[in-house]
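Much of our argument rests on the idea that a fold can be written as discrete symbols. Part of our work consisted of pairing the sequence of a single chain with a tokenised description of its backbone. The amino acid sequence and the backbone structure tokens for this protein are reproduced below.
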Amino acid sequence: MLLALIVVATLAAAAGAWALLAERRATRLEALLDAERRAAADKLSSVEHARDALKDTFAALSADALATNNQRFLELARQKLGELHTAAAVDLDVRHKAITDLVQPLKESLGRVDSRLQDVDRERATSHARLAEQLRSLSAAQAALQLETGRLARALRSPNVRGQWGELQLRRVLEAAGMLEGNHFELKESVTADEGRLTPDVLVKLPGGKHVVVDAKVPLSAFLDAGECDDDAARETKLRDHARQLKDHIVRLSGKTYWAHFQPAPDIVVMFVPGEALLSTALQQDTGLLEFSMKRGVMLASPLTLIALLRAITYGWQQEKIAQNAMEISELGRQLYERIAKLAEHFENVGRSLAKSVTAYNGAVGTLESRVLVTARRLKDSGIAPTEELPDVETIDLAPRPLGAPELTGLFDEVVEKA
């Protein structure tokens, strides 16, 4: 127990000593820490002063350096800008010239285009004014045409006017086909028959002395009525009436048997309908109308089909004219050949006469040389001085030239042999 107390006391004393020692150490450490804090504060203050000084110095140096650099940069920039400006100016001049050279043709073209556009605009204005005037004239002409059409429609309802109009159209078709009155056709040729006097509109002459009768018929009243109908059913009724009227004309024309009274002629008569619409409409309403007419010896013809028929007849006349010309040329050739043969006979006689003349001439020359000139030379030798010398007379050795044509070969063989 005592020992324990001693130990405790010892430990307590040791602990107190350690505590005192620790307190002293702590005090020293605090003093040292304070000193270090003061030193650190001094150093921090010095560092802050140095930093401020460095900051000021750096700011001053930076400002100087910046000013210097700015100055150098400005000088360099001025230099570079000057060089660039000079180069740019030169390049700009070059580019300006190049662009000018490039744009100049375009400018000239645009100038021409602008000038042309102005001309076109003026022409357009002129054309517009002219067109407006033409439209006004056309409107007036249309109004006049409508008026005249109405008058014509009213006039064509008269049978006499319709007949005259059909005959006029028929004459125009004949002229369009190239036919001449008196040569290729006759108008209003009349004959007397048992049923009375027959007078067809046209008698067309065919090659070989034949004829074909053409008579114009104008079934127009029902057709005009159909054009005035607003109702389709009524219009169809009128068009069927138009086909019946045309069929009635076929029956009446067939009963006249023109071909029997104008011989020689084919057993057919041409019924001319002076309007394509008149015939085509009737054929649409009555599809058997064409066969009906052909069975009765009537051939229906519109202006186009009649022109084709008359053209064929005109071609026949042309071929006959060519054949006649060929016959005339053949006859002229025969006459020419006979005359050439007669002329060859005259040449033969002339050749014989020439050969005889040459023979007589050569005989006379022989007599002159062998008899007359011998005596004359003797007279000269006897001392008679002639005033002129006797000429030398030569014989003719040429014969008449024979004709070289094969047809005339041999005509002068006999003449040459005799010569």
Summary: The domain at 158-328 is CATH 3.40.1350 (Trna Endonuclease; Chain: A, domain 1). Residues 414-419 have pLDDT under 50 and may be disordered.
